[in-house]
Amino acid sequence: xxxxxxxxxxxxxxxxxxxxxxxxxxxxxxxxxxxHEEMSAYGACRLCLVEVVKRGWPSIQxxxxxxxxxxxxxxxxxxxxxxxxxxxxxxxxxxxxxxQAIIDIAKEYGVRDTxxxxxxxxxxxxxxxxxxxxxxxxxxxxxxISFAHRGSKRMIxxxxxxxxxxxxxxxxxxxxxxxGVIKIDEAD
Amino acid sequence: xxxEITTRVKPxxxxxxxxAMKEQCKAALERxxxxxxxxxxTACIAGxxxxxxxxxxxxxxxxxIDVNVELLFEGGETEAGASTSGCHGFCQMxxxxxxxxxxTFYNKVKVDxxxxxxxxxxxxQGVVEELLFENQDGTRxxxxxxxxxxxxxxxxxxxGCGTINPxxxxxxFAVDGYQALAKCLREMSPEDVVEExxxxxxxxxxxxxxxxxxxxxxxxxxxxxxxxxxxNADEGDPGAFMDRSLIEGNPQSxxxxxxxxxxxxxxxxxxxxxxxxxxxxxxxxxxxxxQARDYGLLGNNIMGTGFDFDIEVFQGxxxxxxxxxxxxxxxxxxxxxxxxxxYDHATDKGLWEKPTVLxxxxxxxNVPIIINKGADWYASMGTDNSKGTKVFSLVGNIxxxxxxxxxxxxxxxxxxxxxxxxxxxxxxxKAVQTGGPSGGCLPADKLDMPVDxxxxxxAGSMMGSGGMIVMDEGACxxxxxxxxxxxxxxxSCGKCISCRDGSxxxxxILDRICEGEGREEDLETMEDLCHCIDDxxxxxxxxxxxxxxxxxxxxxxDEYLAHIKDKNCPAKVCKPLFTYEVxxxxxxxxxxxxxxxxxxxxxxxxxxxxxIIQDKCVKCGICKEVCKFGAVE
Lengths: 188, 633
Ligand SMILES: Cc1cc2nc3c(=O)[nH]c(=O)nc-3n(C[C@H](O)[C@H](O)[C@H](O)COP(=O)(O)O)c2cc1C
Ligand code: FES
Description:
The structure holds 2 protein chains of 2 kinds.
Chain A: E1 2-6, E2 9-13, H1 19-25, E3 49-54, E4 57-62, E5 73-75, H2 79-95, H3 100-108, H4 131-139, E6 146-148, E7 155-157, H5 172-176
Helix pairs in contact in A: 2-3
Chain B: H1 2-8, H2 17-31, E1 34-39, H3 42-46, H4 49-62, H5 69-73, E2 80-85, E3 97-100, E4 104-106, H6 114-123, E5 133-134, E6 140-141, H7 148-151, H8 169-174, H9 179-187, H10 190-200, H11 212-221, E7 228-233, H12 242-249, H13 251-265, E8 269-275, H14 279-294, E9 299-302, E10 307-316, H15 325-332, E11 356-360, H16 361-373, H17 375-379, E12 389-396, E13 402-407, H18 412-419, E14 429-434, E15 440-443, H19 453-458, E16 467-472, H20 477-491, H21 497-514, H22 522-536, H23 540-544, H24 547-555, H25 557-564, H26 592-596, E17 602-603, E18 611-612, H27 622-626
Parallel strand pairs in B: 1-2, 7-8, 7-11, 8-10, 12-16
Antiparallel strand pairs in B: 1-3, 3-4, 5-6, 9-10, 12-13, 14-15, 14-16, 17-18
Helix pairs in contact in B: 9-13, 9-16, 10-11, 10-13, 12-13, 12-14, 13-16, 20-21, 21-22, 22-24
The complex binds flavin mononucleotide and FE2/S2 (inorganic) cluster.
Flavin mononucleotide is lined by residues 204-208, 210, 232, 234-236, 320-321, 323-325, 358-360, 363, 465, 539-541 of chain B.
């Protein structure tokens, strides 16, 4: 067991529990886009950021991955956290301006507009959260899709960009997609 | 050569035997009366050094003198040998040839110079004056030590580079090679070794500057087995070649450092992660490992002491981000070379979840020196929190480009003006970018800053792995920032939105400013975004990526404002933001600009002042360059 404070409250939890798991149990809201309790945490969307003070040093950490540790002090809603989340949401709006899921979370943070502009080729409703990749690998055990390329060219792909023969059409990927960008063609 | 070694070699059977080995190799080297050392670093090879080497060999052979270096080792009658050596560091003066034992130092040697060098050395006992380095005052430097480029340096780690043959371990033996390992095995416990490195204050040279001894100590205490030693030779920074040159020039020093580390922490296996784009380094590394094995310095029962350790070479595909520790481990494990969040220390759970020490090439190369000369000696060099020396690759608008090594705490001014020889073509110094693509740009008023880990960080830059790019007044800092952000955007693995889309959004703003469409609020927007990228990204690529923007905003804000408010690029780099005009008073009506303009944008008639038609001008700057009267601005 480890003891730490979360938003001022001292808690004792099992070693290895993440901050996000504890927060959800405590009814504390932390926004997430790439997390699903049935799958491994990945840490790509960065929305779950919280402020952690460890041995006097404050830092920003992803709650979905960061394990509760003895003596740390965690705050889920500091000024610094809110500021970073808002800018991340501006980036999300620049990437996927028409995604309702994004617009809704942004609204919660008072973000209605974005100061950023991405090139046409850099915009997409796919936010590269990797939930589909993990659903396919961890739940359906098919490994039919994965990430391809680096930087702004990163995308989700089937091997050699053809319909993977391991795909059984289970639709788990479409089901977990937070922005609804994965459409299933019934004929296939 | 390898074969000869393998057939003759008797493995070292006890640490005490190393002393005799050194004497034997040293004597063999000294028996060689004269030796021509041709630099075989990558830059010198590109400049034709291998041709010079071949020609030297041919001509010496024609004169009936045996040149085989190997034969020299057996104490033959030969008078002269030619041998290739690793990078001397003085790259733009290459190909470099040094004549030993005199130490005569020739630069810019061409194949045609070979007969002169040979006759001067062998027949006249003199030197070829015109191939010696010319100082700024016109005097000539006969040996390396007299060249200002070397005089200001402290070449400890680079000491062997350019002086020993990197493809022959016996050359390394002759200059104290493997004495440090022998000392460790003979008289030091593993704890002593770790303690010595801790006491030396050695900090990691790959970027973060983490104390090496403390890392080793954690790994030594870790329970998991087996333990691994990894040497990071990914070196993905554009323009950096410290690690490549070290491996090319003195691979055994890196290997010896790794073996000592393995002894200290109790590791059995080692990996050198080197980028496949470094073919010469890879070849020399393989050779060096083979030779070390032949001599019983790697493998089972090292120096007959029962200590086992061996090294494998892993060739990475050369992604910048693969140099990051968790991505590098993933890459070795066959996973995508992408950073992952690790909250366990690698010294507990690193490669294959086993205790792992990951250090940079240069970090390891420092280790034998520390053991040989002692931690106290080492710690006497440098500043309070940065001990020893640092290797930098000095490039950009600077007279002497190349690889340098200076004591920690040397000022930027000394590095750039004394060692680097200042800015060429009478131009003014503008900025120096340190720390690689995600380092910061420092302005002239930071020139007197002593360079160490902490000072650089405080100034908004970083040590990184030691890249140093010097810029003169012709550089536009907005454009420079754009270049580095573009690099980071390309090299980002793409996992964190902050790093991937954040850098793309920064790039969009910088692009706009360079196009003349900047808005005043852009500067604040970029600062906000930079802080978010730093806070929100997982690995060091993202957290340091804002440095080029933040540092230029801090030190060159006026230049950004000139772009945005006055629609003017003071350095005349951003094409939409400046024009060339003829200054009527200076124009001597010669018509040179008219004749040289590639786009017919100059109107000129005899006895008339030239005029530039802005609509047609492509801003190539040729008119300004050719004008002898300073009449185009
Ligand atoms: C994006 C990125 C690239 C890196 N590239 C290198 C590299 O090419 N070589 C290197 O030694 N360290 C590199 N590092 C630093 C390593 O993560 C690690 O800190 C270092 O190898 C540890 O060795 P040291 O303590 O001896 O410096 C990089 C870090 C980041 C974040
Ligand atoms: S939920 Fe933690 S990074 Fe996405």
